[in-house]
Amino acid sequence: MKGLILVGGYGTRLRPLTLTVPKPLVEFANKPMILHQIEALAKAGVTDIVLAVNYRPEVMVNTLKKYEKEYGVNITFSVETEPLGTAGPLKLAEEVLKKDDSPFFVLNSDVICEYPFEELVKFHKAHGGKGTIVATKVDEPSKYGVIVHDIATPNLIDRFVEKPVEFVGNRINAGLYILNPEVIDLIEMKPTSIEKETFPILVEQRSLYSFDLEGFWMDVGQPKDFLAGTALYLNSLKKKGDKSLAEEGEQIKGNVLIDPTAKIGEGALVGPNVTLGPNVVIGNGVRIQDSVVLANSTIKDHAWVKKTIVGWNSTVGKWARLEGVTVLGDDVEIKDEIYVNGAKVLPHKSVSSNVEKESIIM
Ligand code: GDD
Ligand code: MG
């Protein structure tokens, strides 16, 4: 089978992390975001994966090529000279996606869930339509694409409304599709939106169905959702009895994922909902919860960290206090005893005075 992952866009909502690393390579639960998807596709029997990119492909090529062998897949890069939106990239990758009659997967690169690809294939083949969208329920549907059904035909989509201004329902497009190759014939070779242009045609043809997702789902393209998604993901590992979670104890509270090379000092308390990347050092007496610490960063003794993403190669000083969805970019230094609440600190900055309100430090 075949799959295409939409990896374009500049990831602006995940700045400052995306100023130095493309969004799909930012580690979610200690693994580049996109690897969660590549792994799930490979597990479902996908052998050809197209990454549709328009931003810094070199870095991605270098990082991802090495995983081809590990996962037993061919990864090709389809590079756009201008952003082609969410449908144009399918046309650009036509040769791979149409190489046989089997349906292909399309994934938004920033969604995290327990990808139900095998069930999705079965469901899609059984209804006989041209496309299936994975659906999930959310409380705030206005920032997503909303799916509306007829009561008489509960899986056949009756209307698809991208980013509705008025409430039409709360079952939304989870950003995962399976489509028949003929769907590509509906797309022109220009910047186009699958949500606004292609789905309405399929709805009109009464050939677009939805498949209900079980379990958690999150678009992790913004810091607040990245942290919330981390908590949901760790919880799902816990439910599955996954052995990679740290054992709870005097220093570990709730669900915590720790790279084997990370070190935790005496009297420190980590968790719940924390991930510590490679070579991270947590000092003595540190208290850290609901946070992500990326590779090679150090949290010095007695710092207090909550709802914070610490980017790579950064240092948080002694007795510092970080909270309120603070995000540190690459190579940031927070001096001793500093208080930071809801700041986004750009790469290579040093912060030596308190930041009490949401702000960008550059
Ligand atoms: N290759 C390529 N080229 N990819 C692109 C481009 C482009 O020009 N523009 C966006 N993408 C990719 C993004 O990287 C992302 O993986 C996906 O297409 C969707 O774009 P977002 O910018 O993340 O869209 P959204 O989150 O506002 O809305 C989409 O996702 C929601 C679920 O999270 C829509 O598909 C909604 O209908 C959906 O509910
Ligand atoms: Mg998104």
TrEMBL record:
GO terms for biological process: GDP-mannose biosynthetic process. It catalyses: alpha-D-mannose 1-phosphate + GTP + H(+) = GDP-alpha-D-mannose + diphosphate. Gene3D superfamilies: Hexapeptide repeat proteins, Spore Coat Polysaccharide Biosynthesis Protein SpsA, Chain A. SUPFAM superfamilies: Nucleotide-diphospho-sugar transferases (SSF53448). The keyword RNA-binding does not apply. The keyword Ribonucleoprotein does not apply. Its EC number is 2.7.7.13. Residues 252-361 form the Mannose-1-phosphate guanyltransferase C-terminal domain. CDD domains: M1P_guanylylT_B_like_N. InterPro entries: GMPPB_C, GMPPB_N, Hexapep_transf_CS, Mannose-1P_guanyltransferase, NTP_transferase_dom, Nucleotide-diphossugar_trans. Keywords: Cell cycle, GTP-binding, Nucleotide-binding, Transferase. GO terms for molecular function: GTP binding; mannose-1-phosphate guanylyltransferase (GTP) activity. Pathway: Nucleotide-sugar biosynthesis; GDP-alpha-D-mannose biosynthesis; GDP-alpha-D-mannose from alpha-D-mannose 1-phosphate (GTP route): step 1/1. Residues 2-234 form the Nucleotidyl transferase domain. Belongs to the transferase hexapeptide repeat family. Involved in cell wall synthesis where it is required for glycosylation. Involved in cell cycle progression through cell-size checkpoint. PANTHER family: SUGAR-1-PHOSPHATE GUANYL TRANSFERASE (PTHR22572). This is mannose-1-phosphate guanylyltransferase. It comes from Cyberlindnera jadinii (strain ATCC 18201 / CBS 1600 / BCRC 20928 / JCM 3617 / NBRC 0987 / NRRL Y-1542). The lineage of its organism: Eukaryota, Fungi, Dikarya, Ascomycota, Saccharomycotina.
